[in-house]
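PROTEIN DESIGN WORKSHEET
SECTION A - STRUCTURE
LENGTH: 78
TOKENS:
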């Protein structure tokens, strides 16, 4: 159960073997921020993700009652 005070982008599926899976993201987690910019919903997450520069993304994730930061490598197209 996600408390009402938690706003962000809910993760509904994580592909096994994906980068998201490798850093510990799971279904039911909520992404609260990307590079310290708040995420209100999935659309905002997509917009922020397009603006990210560099090789890594700092995510603040709420998971089962605990908020934690995760560093996620960015996939780059060559």
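SECTION B - SEQUENCE
RESIDUE ASSIGNMENT:
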């Amino acid at each position: 159960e996600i408390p009402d005070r938690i706003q962000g982008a809910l993760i509904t599926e994580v592909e096994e073997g994906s980068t998201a899976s490798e850093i510990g993201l799971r279904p039911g987690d909520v992404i609260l921020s990307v590079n310290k910019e708040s995420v209100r919903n999935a659309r905002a997450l997509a917009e922020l993700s397009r603006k990210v520069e560099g090789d890594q993304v700092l995510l603040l994730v709420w998971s089962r009652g605990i908020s934690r930061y995760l560093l996620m490598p960015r996939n780059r197209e060559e």
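SECTION C - NOTES
The helical segments are 19-22, 42-51.
The mean pLDDT is 92.
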